[in-house]
Design goal:
7-stranded mixed sheet, binds pyridoxal-5'-phosphate, alpha/beta, single chain, 11 helices
């Protein structure tokens, strides 16, 4: 047997009739950019997240960037970001000319540690940008409390957390604005690039709506220098079909996660920790084996897919050499980079595949 890390064809197999019909509907409409499908998806996704507004954009990185631009973040400003995240979170800050200021994660949840934020706040700090990493919500109440104390904005990077809840509230509705990605492998994935912003702030929403479309709300009238970052009609139409399945698919991920959590006890393996206020959506199932290179060798022999999220943290990438943050300065995220490992999880993983993965991990991590 062979269990791939990710099954991207599963969603198409399950929804082929609906997706094929949608394809024809959009093709025959003759309208491919900023039309009824995007409008409908924006309304449906705002409703799903529990926010007043949603703006569809080109991808998750643009979603983050456009939020920061609409908040007038720029050169001289600082944005607090997790040290442990995908590089997109940092790049969005860099694109505005502002400086990303990393804060270490909590060792148990791997998410931004609220206790460490205050020490990173300076008079230049404008925004805190927590990531709901691996589909698990960040601890937002204390993050929002620090933000309020210092008059900062809070932007969620919800690219891995469509549908996740914190104290019962959905990711996307937990700060001033949130960015989502619809990259194909995400919990809600398009068949190409896509992204969205959710917010309750009408002025922010209107500004982002202009910024994504050349700074224009009336055709050929450009009040400011904008960008071209639009979710296209075809992707929006596909996403509407998939959004209707999102809760069911997240529930299937949760069942797989519960199997793993109960059947992988007492091994030389650290399992994910779920705080009681969190309802994660298990974008990734991240374990920490005692001996990662031996562990991955056995998974390879057994044909079980795995990936590392992420092998090199942003501050140690060539892209951020200019910040001059040396190895050893962010020890928690560096330790995580050397020990984490993601195993297969997804809505289309079969019970027999879960059994197979569990057995392979027993072979690899037995005490
Ligand atoms: C995927 C991802 C992004 C970027 O999304 P794209 O659509 O690929 O631009 C940003 N942040 C995090 C945490 C992500 O996982």
């Amino acid at each position: 047997m062979n269990v791939p890390f990710l099954d991207l064809k599963g969603p198409y197999r399950e929804l082929q009739h609906q997706l094929d019909a949608v394809y024809r509907r959009v093709m025959e409409s003759g309208w491919y950019i900023l039309g009824r499908e995007v409008e409908a998806f924006e309304a449906e996704f705002a409703n799903y997240c529990g926010t007043k507004h949603c703006i569809g954009v080109g991808n998750g990185l643009d979603a983050l960037h456009l939020i920061l631009r609409a908040m007038d973040i720029g050169p001289g400003d600082e944005v607090i970001v997790p040290s442990n995240t995908y590089i997109a979170t940092w790049l969005a800050v860099t694109y505005t000319g502002a400086t990303p200021v990393p804060v270490e994660p909590d060792e148990r949840t791997y998410n931004l540690d609220p206790v460490r934020i205050e020490a990173a706040v300076t008079p230049r700090t404008k925004v805190i940008l927590p990531v709901h990493l691996y589909g698990q919500p960040a601890n937002m109440d204390p993050i929002n409390a620090v933000a309020e104390r210092y008059g900062l904005m809070v932007v969620e990077d919800a690219a891995q957390a469509h549908g996740a809840r914190y104290h019962g509230k959905r990711a996307g509705s937990l700060g001033h604005a949130a960015a989502f990605s619809f990259y194909p492998g995400k919990n809600l994935g398009a068949v190409g690039d896509g992204g969205a912003i959710t917010t309750d702030n009408v002025a922010l929403a209107e500004r982002i709506r202009r910024l994504r479309n050349y700074g224009s709300s009336i055709k050929y009238c450009h009040g400011e220098r904008g960008f071209n970052s639009r979710l296209d009609e075809l992707q929006a139409a596909f996403l509407r079909v998939k959004l209707a399945c999102l809760d069911e698919w997240n529930e299937r991920r949760r069942c797989v996660a519960l199997e793993y959590l109960s059947r992988l006890q007492n091994l030389r393996l650290e399992l994910p920790m779920v705080p009681d206020w969190a309802e994660p959506v298990w974008h990734l199932f991240v374990v920490r084996p005692a001996d990662r290179s031996r562990f991955t060798k056995i998974l390879d022999q057994q044909g079980v897919g795995w990936l590392i999220h992420y092998p090199v943290p942003p501050h140690l990438q060539g892209a951020y050499a200019l910040l001059g943050i040396e190895r050893g300065r962010l020890p928690v995220c560096e330790m995580l980079a050397e020990t984490v490992l993601s195993i297969p999880i997804g809505p289309h993983l079969k019970d027999s595949e879960v059994d197979y993965v569990v057995n392979a991990i027993w072979a690899a991590a037995q005490r």
